[in-house]
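Weekly sync, protein design subgroup
Attendees: M.S., D.O., the rotation student, P.L. (late)

Item 1: inverse folding check
M.S. brought a backbone from last month's batch and wanted to see whether the design step gives back something sensible before we order anything. D.O. pointed out we never logged the input encoding, so this time it goes straight into the notes. Structure tokens as presented (538 positions):
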């Protein structure tokens, strides 16, 4: 168990400023290391882990276990030549968009939750009854009404069809007739890759080689514009150098272009999650090193209807995958180098999100505040890892991971540890902190060093008004933000419990004193009046 370090709990108004400073300083590094199993980054390839407050990887129980792995060959439907995208619908069915060199390779496959094949479409049926072949299905999305949307890369069309494969409508690529911002260059580059359809019917498309932003269509399929165009990341020196350089020098320089997105998903609140295809690695490294996360270095973003990134980043570090990049870069035996490269997001019903990293072949799950819950996977396919993972889908307690390198779909099922975390967060998000606390306690029996469990218990104590206890728990969970909140409420309680009665006592004492003074003045005045009239003698 973690050791309890001294907590500055009983405070007075006189030492308020000092105590506020203590609220940010949770515990010392020395005490945190006690009883914790710290592991070398190289040993994490096939282990489940999380990171502590100092960015050190720490083992945790496996949140998922492999249930099965299938290929097109093992299913008897032919190899997935180029598996591109996975999607889980509201019924638990799984859809795979795949392409290849032949017409038979370009297909959409529907599975049940156990990956039993339900249907295969190699194209859609048009209004005349003819079957139009798919031309490189890149992405798939299924609405709650069971309409299937397919992003067809080569034809550049978005196809909406029903469950029988009959086309409902064809959404053509944006043209100059749709908007003055559409150029010949854009038309040439545009190739729809991934898409989502929100509850209003608006269609949001990520396109290959498009850095103008997410391409938006209204519910009628009309081009609306670009959402969340990435900011240009260029430092002042680079900008200055471009201004004074010759044309020949400029031609050799990399252009300052906004980032492009490589994937997109939709959470249960209709917010868009998007992963960035290219972010300045220096910015990401700097944010990891500082422990801060900003939009500038965001590998994953949560976008509102205006395209503003509203993703919370309140964890021990930014939600950028692995933190131990500095050690790995100096290790010649490392299987990979550089920052994590996010390629897809799967959203959980409880508000969590799971991000797929194709550079390190790992999976990272975060809560709504940006805390890393756990990470697992690795580059060794013989140990349950991946070669080139490119898509992920979540349905209840199951994760489905598509690996284009092995052309395999792997099914992961939550363990008891993973389920307890998920249920604890679900009750916490719904406001039932007592049920959440029960599950966080169960998590601690499985892993006594799990920081998020202490934070979860601290939130339960906070909601019950037990601020001193909450401070202790937030301290154990190294949660500075919530510790400060608990401290503020604890300080108010101390003032109310101790200083308010004292103030009343002082008020009463002052009132009595003033009354005595007033009475004495009255007596003295009467005495002087009596002396003047000779009614009394001194």
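Designed sequence read out in the meeting:
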């Amino acid at each position: 168990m973690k050791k309890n370090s001294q907590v500055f709990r009983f405070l007075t108004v006189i030492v308020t400023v000092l105590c506020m400073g203590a609220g940010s300083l949770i515990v010392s590094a020395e005490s945190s290391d006690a009883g914790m199993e710290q592991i070398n980054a190289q040993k994490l390839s096939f282990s489940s882990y999380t990171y502590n407050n100092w960015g050190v990887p720490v083992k945790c129980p496996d949140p998922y276990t492999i249930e099965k792995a299938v290929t097109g060959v093992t299913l008897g439907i032919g190899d997935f030549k180029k598996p591109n995208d996975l999607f889980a619908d509201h019924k638990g069915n799984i859809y795979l968009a795949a392409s290849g060199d032949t017409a038979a390779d370009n297909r959409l496959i529907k599975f049940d939750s156990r990956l039993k094949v339900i249907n295969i479409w190699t194209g859609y049926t048009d209004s005349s009854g003819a079957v139009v072949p798919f031309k490189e299905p890149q992405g798939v999305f299924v609405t709650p009404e069971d309409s299937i949307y397919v992003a067809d890369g080569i034809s550049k069309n978005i196809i909406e069809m029903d469950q029988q494969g009959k086309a409902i409508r064809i959404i053509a690529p944006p043209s100059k007739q749709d908007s003055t911002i559409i150029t010949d260059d854009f038309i040439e580059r545009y190739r729809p890759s991934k898409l989502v359809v929100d509850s209003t019917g608006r269609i949001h498309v990520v396109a290959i080689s498009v850095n103008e932003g997410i391409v938006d269509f209204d519910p009628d399929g009309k081009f609306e514009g670009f959402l969340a165009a990435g900011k240009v990341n260029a430092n002042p020196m680079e900008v200055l150098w471009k201004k004074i350089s010759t044309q020949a020098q400029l031609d050799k320089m990399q252009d300052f272009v906004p980032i492009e997105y490589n994937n997109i998903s939709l959470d249960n609140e209709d917010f868009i999650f998007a992963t960035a295809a290219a972010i300045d690695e220096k910015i990401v490294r700097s944010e990891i090193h500082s422990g801060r996360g900003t939009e500038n270095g965001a590998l994953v973003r949560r976008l509102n209807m205006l395209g503003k990134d509203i993703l919370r980043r309140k964890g021990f570090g930014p939600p950028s995958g692995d933190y131990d990049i500095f050690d790995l870069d100096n290790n010649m035996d490392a299987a990979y180098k550089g920052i994590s490269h996010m390629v897809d997001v799967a959203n959980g019903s409880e508000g969590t999100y799971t991000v797929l990293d194709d550079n390190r072949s790992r999976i990272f799950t975060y809560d709504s505040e940006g805390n890393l819950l756990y990470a697992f996977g690795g580059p060794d396919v013989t140990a349950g890892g991946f070669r080139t993972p490119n898509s992920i889908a979540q349905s209840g307690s199951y994760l489905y991971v598509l690996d284009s390198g092995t052309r395999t779909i792997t099914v992961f099922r939550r363990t008891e540890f993973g389920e307890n975390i998920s249920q604890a967060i679900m009750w916490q998000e719904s406001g039932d902190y007592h049920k959440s606390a029960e599950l966080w306690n169960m998590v601690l029996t499985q892993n006594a060093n799990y920081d998020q469990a202490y934070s979860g218990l601290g939130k339960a104590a906070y909601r019950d008004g037990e601020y001193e206890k909450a401070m202790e728990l937030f301290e154990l969970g190294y949660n500075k933000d919530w510790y400060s909140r608990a401290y503020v409420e604890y300080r108010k309680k101390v003032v109310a419990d101790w200083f308010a009665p004292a103030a009343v006592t002082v008020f009463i004492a002052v009132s009595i004193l003033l009354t005595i003074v007033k009475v004495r003045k009255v007596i003295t005045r009467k005495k002087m009046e009596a002396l003047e009239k000779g009614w009394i003698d001194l």
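Discussion: The CA atoms of residues 191 and 208 lie 5 Å apart. The chain has two domains: 13-57+424-489, 64-414.
Action: P.L. to compare against the previous round before Friday.
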